[in-house]
Amino acid sequence: MTDRATPSDTYSYLGPAGTFTEAALKLVEAAAGKPWRSVNNVGEALDDVVSGRSIGAVIAIENSVDGGVSATQDALARIPGVRIVGEYLVPVDFVLVARHGTALADVRTVNAHPVAYAQTHRWLERNLRGHGHIPASSNVAAATALLDEHPVADAAVAPPGITDHHDLAVLASSIGDNASAVTRFVLVSRTLAIPERTGADKTSVIVELPSEHPGALVDMLEQFATRGINMGLLSSRPIGDELGRYRFVIDLDGHVRDERVADALLGLRRFSPRVTFLGSYPRADGFRPEVSARYSDEAFVEARDWLRAIVSGEPDPA
């Protein structure tokens, strides 16, 4: 797809063609048939959205093996005015590729993105003993570097299907150390409209602690525990202004329109000097959490009505 497009129709993704991010963008129904813009990093993708160059951007936010993607978490904390409006899960596996005529026994050095290398290093150590690792900026860049006049490595770890885009030979398939590895991608947009709740939703926030005192983290977590809210992700990232100060990237089970989630966010707002609401959106896996009766919407509404009656001087309904 070309970049010659009306900006409002364009979707950005970490390219080039053949990346896992492109595979995630293919899952976005609204992006079908629209122009796609390949970018070099998460910051550029979010800048496309903020500037209006693109209507949305797909970025990786979490991996089942390596956890949260720090570059994405830091960028979301740093760049205001964007919201997560959807998530997509992409199974992750890798192939080992080389120039035609190269045999597995010839491989002494491997070019691989650090995350890809971490997810394949056991296979590589078993099959390429004593090999050297040369880090690459992306999975596709690792493969395309093999086509340079003087390649820096003998082989590369790359996504399946890389040979659809580049003239390389596959030396080995399914070399991932974890067959069930999955990367979670999110669709980020400038829209402030929140997707309707489905009952299988997720809410993402970034929270800073008010001070470094004993129990500060527990105080924050109690905002969720006392309202029966499960956290799917709790990741700490340095704020960067001084040593020992951290912000927390948190995924909650539920939607901001769920009474328990809304009440927890109000508690966070009173507690924290800075709460960044990243969005409420449908879960990709469709999981619907079981909610105890005391944390149901009805329980919160009844409690407010009870207190309102007392304040209004009405007889205690209890």
Automatic annotation (TrEMBL):
EC number(s) reported in the record: 4.2.1.51
CDD domains reported for this sequence: ACT_CM-PDT (cd04905), PBP2_Aa-PDT_like (cd13632)
Record PROSITE patterns: ACT, PREPHENATE_DEHYDR_3
Domain ACT: 205-282
Tagged with keyword Endoplasmic reticulum: no
Catalytic activity: prephenate + H(+) = 3-phenylpyruvate + CO2 + H2O
Pathway assigned in UniProt: Amino-acid biosynthesis; L-phenylalanine biosynthesis; phenylpyruvate from prephenate: step 1/1
Swiss-Prot/TrEMBL keywords: Amino-acid biosynthesis, Aromatic amino acid biosynthesis, Lyase, Phenylalanine biosynthesis
Domain annotation Prephenate dehydratase: ranges: 10-190
GO molecular function terms attached to this record: prephenate dehydratase activity
Keyword Ligase part of the UniProt annotation: no
PANTHER family, alphabetized: PREPHENATE DEHYDRATASE P PROTEIN (PTHR21022), PREPHENATE DEHYDRATASE-RELATED (PTHR21022:SF19)
UniProt name for this protein: Prephenate dehydratase
